[in-house]
Design a protein that fits this description.
alpha/beta, Rossmann fold, L-2-Hydroxyisocaproate Dehydrogenase, Chain A, domain 2, three-stranded antiparallel beta sheet, 10 helices, 20% strand
Amino acid sequence: MNIGKVNRVVLIGTGAVGCSYAYSMINQGVAEELVLIDVNEAKAEGEVMDLNHGMPFSPSPIKVWNGTYQDCATADLIVITAGLAQKPGETRLQLVEKNTKIFKEIVHNIMESGFDGIFLVATNPVDILTYVTWKESGLPKERVIGSGTVLDSARLRFNLGQYFDVDTRNVHAYIIGEHGDTELPVWSSTSIGVEKLETVLTKKNDIKKECLDKIFVNVRDAAYHIIERKGATYYGIGMSLVRITKAILNNENCILTVSSYLEGQYGHHDIFIGVPAVINRSGIREVIEIELNEKEKAQFDHSVSVLKQTMEPVLV
């Protein structure tokens, strides 16, 4: 046992999402070392100073500093939140060309350091940029993970918890597909506590399917509503990234709907997309292929098709 081994996480990008992640990491005491890197070095330095001033109140010691790509060499996990943000009225997929160019440079710089850990990608369009990261890095597919639909699934669980008046942590529901407009809810695998959603609906005559459809639309369009009101979303995704980070560093074998590489699962190949997967210290241990009904299968196929069409021009 290597007593001196510590978990080092490198964060690329100190915008609102990156800083929400760093803040949550420190408050939850997830790693021993956290390195912040940003093209704006003064910004990264200022964020580090501000975060360190709260260290006396953190649950465990954590060394935080603004670093360089050389710090990636011995990192266990690199989290990328850098890139251009989604503007009001802009879809995530419209960001693809601009952020693909940025990512190729970032990943090149990281790999030059000798990095051999796990990538966690959050920048939109996350499924496509996870694919770009995998291709540019040359790392095994298991060690390149996108935040996928973890946040979307959390939004669905929260809204269902509100609707049924139960603790959101006892709601088991998944959004799969693209993190964006073509995502879909897997109602056939949703349960409220120990009861299947279908069973709950038969007991409650006042609940109509239209209510569930409205809940999903609010989940799917949540980012647009938040961006319209405050300019960006960052707390939810920051906490989602910390949840994935904990699953990796703590070797949890936790099931999360991350952006994963498909090799025939769900009938598709050569694409990263949000599906349930088992996450541990080696990255993605396995993709879980849940049974979809006919409608869900058709919706998932459509989501894959849209992603592939959008990816084609930038991956030539």
